[in-house]
Specification:
Helix 1 crosses helix 2 and helix 5 (135-152) crosses helix 6. It contains 7 helices and no strands. It is mostly helical. It has helices spanning 2-29, 37-54, 65-87, 96-128, 135-152, 162-189, 191-194. The radius of gyration is 19 Å and the shape is globular. The chain starts with a helix and ends with a helix.
């Protein structure tokens, strides 16, 4: 019971940071406005790891790779901690390539969760407070995903159903390919132990 509680606590704390680092990367990629309290918080929260890593990992094509690498390294560290907690030590035969790839798969899952959250916040703000100061940020984060759906699906009774379509597609992606990748990789993580 204590092992499960400790694992939950570690995942919660570390995933908050990983989500912030991913969000920092995506805000930069999508050219989101950084002049709002939420973006300022994300930058301040992640600066202590991103800034030093920028000295080692420069940007590529205008992308802040340091934020993405920080998210991946923190997720990898979390996976190692979870293995230590579960097995009360580091077991022999852990597949390092599987562990490295599992961190990537978890980042994909968390990225989809970020998109779901951004779409929900954007949809709610558009209904209750379309001129809210945070609206430009969430518009920028969701527009590349909502725009193609809006071109195909017109307004129905004045209601934009594109957020609903994106949420359904995200859930399907999480349920089938991402779940399969994560379960397959977790199965390969300890495959040498079975032999």
């Amino acid at each position: 019971m204590m092992t499960g509680a400790l694992a939950y606590l570690l995942e919660t704390v570390f995933h908050l940071f990983v989500l912030a680092a991913l969000l920092r990367f995506y805000m930069q990629v999508l050219r989101a406005p950084f002049r709002n309290p939420f973006a300022v918080f994300v930058i301040a929260f992640t600066d202590f790891l991103v800034k030093p890593l920028r000295r080692v990992i420069p940007g590529l094509g205008g992308f802040d790779l340091a934020s993405l690498v920080v998210a991946w390294l923190v997720e990898l560290f979390l996976l190692l901690l979870l293995i230590l907690v579960k097995f009360k030590g580091f077991p022999d035969g852990v597949s390092l390539p599987a562990l490295l790839f599992l961190a990537v798969v978890v980042l994909i899952r968390l990225s989809i969760y970020l998109l779901i959250a951004a779409v929900l916040v954007q949809a709610i703000l558009s209904w209750v407070s379309p001129y809210h100061p945070m609206m430009p940020l969430f518009d920028t984060l969701t527009k590349p995903f909502l725009r193609p759906v809006r071109k195909v699906l017109p307004l129905i009774g004045g209601v934009d159903l594109s957020p609903l379509v994106i949420l359904v597609v995200c859930q399907l992606i999480l349920m089938v390919p991402v779940f399969w990748l994560e379960e397959t990789t977790r199965g390969m993580l300890f495959s040498p132990l079975a032999g």
